[in-house]
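Entry 14. Structure prediction run on the chain below.
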Amino acid sequence: MSIEAPPAPSTQPAATGSLASFLSELLLEQQRLQTPVAQFAALHEHGLASPSSRPLIPLTAPGPGEQYAFEVDLDACSGCKACVSACHSLNGLDDNEAWRDVGLIHGGTTAAPYQQTITTACHHCADPACLNGCPVVAYEKDPITGIVRHLDDQCIGCSYCILKCPYDVPKYNARLGIVRKCDMCQQRLAVGEAPACVQACPTHAISIVKVSTFSANTDFLAAAPAPEYTRPTTSYRSKLEIPANATAADASTLYVQHAHAPLVAMLTLTQLAVGLLATAPLLSLPENVNGDLLKSVTYYVTLPSEHTAKLLGFALLFAGLGASVLHLGQPTRAWRFFLGLRTSWLSREILVFSAFAPLALSTLLWPNSNLLRAAVATTGVVGVICSAMIYIDTRRRFWAPLFTHVRFLGTAVIAALIPIHSPATIVTLFVKLCFELRQALGSGVSARLQRGPLLPVLVTRFTLGAGALIALLTNQSTAAFALFAAGEIAERTLFFKAVDSPKMPGHPVSP
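Output returned:
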């Protein structure tokens, strides 16, 4: 049974020509228009507001194999951003915080151009990457509604979910030190009220529907990231055919990503430490063994002592681990990292380096234990691989498996080779620089970023790398290590700032 808005009151206008007459006529005219907002206001005045939203939300809970999802009528979306404003106000977001965005795609031909505004929030994916990647299980997918909720009181503010989500949904709140995102106004849905964005849309372009989680979106939206990764449940419908060449309005805009300075320091320093601590035992071999074992494969000049290598390795290791804490918005909650071991590479990295540090320190007590030396080297390599997998698992093109492993393992291997003056050091560093140069000379977004706004960092990186090569050729191991380490800091800065971050089409990128 449909409920119609009550009739407009018959207000008699005042004397002709007066201000009161003009205002009365204007109000009467607005009431006759009966826009969705006017209808809602009239219904609210008579205590009938709730039923007006019911057609836009399901009247029953999802059944087995179903969940709630957003449905967007592209033909009805005007791009007014009433949904953005309502979401911001109802959820009490900070000034620069938004859980819903409105963007633009365009395409077609000169004869038949196409332009469409796109409103989007969290897609409450059937296989959410944010949930799978969180090291402290600060996300949960409601078993009944399918809504992906973020648990604010569990979040450590590592922002890994931001890297994992291909739709730029989770947003970091610096004031709170945690990530937050849309929860489909689940508290309102639970009592039969529509979410803020649904209720505020003047054209009813947004609604909540029930969808099958087994057939969640494989045909998502033009110019959006591929849906196979997370299986988003939001559906976009239109009577118009979206052109095959439709692209985001900001597709040609280059966005420099966040530098993540603590992560730059952590990754570089821990990988240098792994290399040094793995090499240190070789430096303590007796002189006659050194001559037989190393002279045929090294430029044997003057090897540093084992204690020097260990001291530098420990200093770099603990400096790197300390820097990683600075990346967390809520570091006191980080002890819960073990909860995500089943699905999160970040949890695994924390576990491995938590074991690597005491193993490396124990070599001070048992310096001649070959088993302990092997355990230190093995654990260190596994830790570096876990570090690489954290970024590989986000499926970003710039962080492809081959290039990421070359960068991360290359840093550790070269750091291990420099103290023993191996000719393999020069070859390995040269190959690593060639891999990086290949990524900088391509035509993709990351390559254009490196040759554009990040060119000074790129030049610095290759200048330091070339300096390290020259120092190696002249057997200046101390200078070579210093130049190499500085160059790796610049390289790791490019690793973060030049990544092509996926997001919904036409939307402003998160800071």
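The chain is about 45% helix and 10% strand.
Filed with the rest of this week's runs.
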